[in-house]
Amino acid sequence: MRGIFRLILRILKIFVIAFFAITILWVLLYRFVNPPVTWLMITRGFERKADGKDWKIDKHWVAFDSIADPMKRAAVAAEDQKFLNHFGFDFKAMERAIDKNQHSHKLMGGSTISQQTAKNVFLWPGRSYVRKAFEAYFTMLIEVMWSKKRIMEVYLNVIEMGDGIYGVEAAAQNYYHKHASQLTTYQSAAIASIFPNPLHWSPTNPSDYLRHHQYLIRKNIRRLGPLDF
């Protein structure tokens, strides 16, 4: 019996060491290599097929310096205004989200850009405590191993921005027929406004609610100080 217990402990030890080694190397690799695909892209592709649509993963990677400055500022203004100052987590935003969700049927997110990047690149879609724990783990890893510039670059290249549309270059081409480097403040704010619900919202055909949201994003962009990446 004692021998079996030792064997189980040894297997668990090997598993834990392998998990940390693989995940750390994975995150380190993506510091230099662009993620080719995400679980969300694959999942959405199968969902499209199930709905009778063609398989579609429209994405075109662009370097950080080839993304218009207004788009970077719009992402920060819309999603995470403390992005350059926190270590992956905005606990006050989380508290506000938890408090609001207790009194509303509409779920409000409190995730930072770093958390969203970790979720999109390394994890599967869905909501569970297990996935949130992995999200926190990968968020800490990318904050340690990547620069804020790299986090923003990956974020703006993998985030879902429409039905089968991923990343700012594909969004710029689909919605405005231009390169990501040419996006204006208005266009950037419009694209950023759909981040919470990209399958149902359109930057070029916004509802009154979305127009107001875009106005607030532009207002926040003006309030932002220099973004020192």
TrEMBL record:
GO biological-process terms attached to the record: cell wall organization; peptidoglycan biosynthetic process; regulation of cell shape
- Gene3D superfamilies noted in UniProt: Biosynthetic peptidoglycan transglycosylase-like (1.10.3810.10)
Reactions this protein catalyses: [GlcNAc-(1->4)-Mur2Ac(oyl-L-Ala-gamma-D-Glu-L-Lys-D-Ala-D-Ala)](n)-di-trans,octa-cis-undecaprenyl diphosphate + beta-D-GlcNAc-(1->4)-Mur2Ac(oyl-L-Ala-gamma-D-Glu-L-Lys-D-Ala-D-Ala)-di-trans,octa-cis-undecaprenyl diphosphate = [GlcNAc-(1->4)-Mur2Ac(oyl-L-Ala-gamma-D-Glu-L-Lys-D-Ala-D-Ala)](n+1)-di-trans,octa-cis-undecaprenyl diphosphate + di-trans,octa-cis-undecaprenyl diphosphate + H(+)
Taxonomic superkingdom: Bacteria
Q: What membrane topology is given?
A: Single-pass membrane protein
Q: Which GO terms describe its molecular function?
A: pentosyltransferase activity; peptidoglycan glycosyltransferase activity
Report the pathway entry.
Answer: Cell wall biogenesis; peptidoglycan biosynthesis
Assigned keywords, A-Z: Cell inner membrane, Cell membrane, Cell shape, Cell wall biogenesis/degradation, Glycosyltransferase, Membrane, Peptidoglycan synthesis, Transferase, Transmembrane, Transmembrane helix
InterPro entries given in the database record? Glyco_trans_51 (IPR001264), Lysozyme-like_dom_sf (IPR023346), PBP_transglycosylase (IPR036950), Pep_trsgly (IPR011812)
> Cross-referenced Pfam families, in alphabetical order?
Transgly
Q: Where are the transmembrane segments?
A: 12-33
Which Gene Ontology terms of cellular component type are present?
Answer: peptidoglycan-based cell wall; plasma membrane
Q: Which residues form the Glycosyl transferase family domain?
A: 58-218
Main subcellular location = membrane
Cite the EC number: 2.4.99.28
Localization, per the record, is:
Cell membrane
User: What's this protein's function?
Assistant: Peptidoglycan polymerase that catalyzes glycan chain elongation from lipid-linked precursors.
Q: Family membership, please give it.
A: Belongs to the glycosyltransferase 51 family.
Q: What is this protein called?
A: Biosynthetic peptidoglycan transglycosylase
Native species: Mucilaginibacter agri
Lineage of the organism:
Bacteria, Pseudomonadati, Bacteroidota, Sphingobacteriia, Sphingobacteriales
Name the encoding gene, please.
mtgA
